[in-house]
Write a structure and sequence with these properties.
The chain is α/β, with parallel strands linked by helices and 249 residues long. Helices cover 37% and strands 18% of the residues. It starts with 7 loop residues before the first strand and ends in a 7-residue tail after the last helix.
């Protein structure tokens, strides 16, 4: 996307096609070196694939082995490219294309789903209602330096305009967009012990969204909900329901 190479993996379920598809979107990396014992998103992809979903996981620009520099509006273009890929697969049911995002990836999914009617359902996990009342984002120059330190902004001359880069966060603000997803279903998942995005953000998003909508507040859940079995199981059960998959699949 934008001339950048993005690293991705696709997981194909057994059984007769077409299958529903799911694109899983990671959040903003918080450290330069990932935990080697944490299998992360591949583990999630395997689980959802076992339950009948074609699953696509990928690294947004600036993350992992993907090229480029972290940029929120750039992330929306990356997700659009991922949706384009899933949509053209012969084994994919074009009427059942779901997205599930975590934190900054959840904000990206809300923005893209609001604008792309090919997306049939959304799971938003630990999503900020807006960015700039989160401590990590409140001082943009400090956050930019953090992005350089963890290696998601790699080029010294990026961004060419800090003000424009910062406006990207405001542009995709989920609270502005989430109502546009209806009448497609959305599930909002949040931990009641989230140390990064206060649980009040989940209720703001729920109240701003249209029907059909569901919310799951995970007892003891922290920000990294992909590590929460309760959160993942809630998302899986909901996605199976809205995609018409039997519980024994």
């Amino acid at each position: 996307m934008d001339g950048l190479q993005l690293v991705a993996e696709v997981y194909l379920p057994e059984g007769q096609s077409p299958h529903p598809s799911l694109c899983i979107c990671h959040g903003v990396p918080a450290r330069r070196t990932p935990d080697s014992t944490d299998r992360g998103y591949p583990l999630l992809a395997e689980k959802f694939c076992r339950h009948g979903f074609i699953v696509l996981i990928f690294n947004f620009r600036g993350s992992g082995e993907s090229e480029g520099n972290f940029d929120m509006l750039g992330w929306t273009r990356d997700l659009k490219a991922a949706i384009n890929y899933l949509y053209q697969l012969d084994v994919a049911d074009k009427s059942r294309l779901s997205v599930m995002g975590f934190s900054g990836g959840a904000a990206t999914t809300v923005y893209c789903a609001a604008r792309d009617k090919r997306i049939s359902s959304v799971v938003s996990c630990a999503c900020p209602a807006r960015f700039f009342d989160i401590a990590d984002f409140s001082r943009i120059e400090e956050f930019l330096e953090h992005c350089r330190e963890v290696g998601i902004i790699r080029d010294n001359n990026f961004p060419p305009s800090v003000d424009e880069w910062a406006r990207g966060f405001e542009e995709i603000s989920p609270l502005k967009r989430i109502h546009q997803i209806a009448p497609r279903p959305i599930l909002i998942v949040h931990g009641d012990s989230d140390e990064t995005v206060d649980p009040s953000h989940a209720w703001e998003l729920y109240n701003a969204s249209g029907e059909p909508r569901d919310i799951a507040i995970i007892e003891g859940g922290e920000h990294k909900l992909r590590l929460s079995e309760a959160a993942v199981d809630a998302a899986l059960s909901w996605l199976k329901k809205v995609n018409g998959l039997a519980e024994n699949v």
